[in-house]
Amino acid sequence: MAAANDHQAHAPAGRVTEARRRKMKAFLGVVAAAAIALFLYYWLHARFYVSTDDAFIDGRIVSISPRVAGHVSRLLVNDNDMVTSGQLMVVLDPRDFQARVDLQQAALEAAEARAKAAEIQLSLTGVTSPAGEQQASWGLRQTESVVAAAEQAYAAALKAVAQAQADLDKNLAAAESSKAQVDASSAEAVKDKRDLERNIALRKSGTISQQEFDVIETRSRAANALLRAAERRYQQDQANARASEAALAAAREQAKAAQSQIGVARAQVGQAQGKLTAAATVEQALALNRAQLAQARAEAAQARAALEQARLDLSYTGIRAPRAGRITKRGIEAGAYVQVGQPLFALVADEMWVTANFKETQLAHMKAGQPVTIEIDAFPRLELRGRVDSIQSGTGARFSLLPPENATGNFVKIVQRVPVKIEFDNVSSPLKLGLAPGMSVIPEVRVR
Question: Which of 109, 222, 248, 405 is the most exposed place for a label (fewest CB within 10 A)?
Answer without folding.
Answer: 405
